[in-house]
Amino acid sequence: MIQLIARIEAQPGQADRLEEVIESIILPSRAEAGCLMYQAHRTVDDPNVFYFYEQWRDKEAFDAHVASIHYQTYRKKSADFVVKRSLTFLKNLSTTN
């Protein structure tokens, strides 16, 4: 399984517009065959910062998401509203066997 947190920081004054673009990618991403979880959040303390928490079945599913038309459209539409993007891949330490 692939797990990650994506952090996106909006340009000053562009957070509401970025939120609209982010909202447009949630449902199509959740509908992807390899999507296990796809959550988008806007921070309370700094409304210019957004986080995605994602879980994908495997690397192929994550790569298919990044290559998808809806993801590429999201990247194009959000490009002018974003200062910085970062991805943090996670290792789950809380699984039980």
Q: Care to give the gist of this entry?
A:
By secondary structure, the protein is an alpha+beta fold. The chain has helices at 15-30, 59-67, 69-78; strands spanning 2-10, 35-42, 49-56, 82-90.
Folded structure, characterized:
By secondary structure, the chain is an alpha+beta fold. It has three helices and four strands. It has helices at residues 15-30, 59-67, 69-78; strands at 2-10, 35-42, 49-56, 82-90. Strands 2-3-1-4 form a four-stranded antiparallel sheet, with helices on one face. A hairpin with a 6-residue loop joins β2 and β3 (49-56). α1 (15-30) runs antiparallel to α3. The longest helix has 16 residues, at 15-30. The chain is globular and about 40 Å long. The two termini are 15 Å apart. 13% of the residues are buried.
State the main characteristics.
97 residues; 4-stranded antiparallel beta sheet
List the helices and strands and how they pair.
Blueprint lengths: L1 E9 L4 H16 L4 E8 L6 E8 L2 H9 L1 H10 L3 E9 L7
Antiparallel strand pairs: 1-3, 1-4, 2-3
Helix pairs in contact: 1-3
Largest sheet: 4 strands, antiparallel
The ordered H/E elements are: EHEEHHE
Strand order of the largest sheet: 2-3-1-4
Mean pLDDT figure? 96
Binned strand content: 35-45%
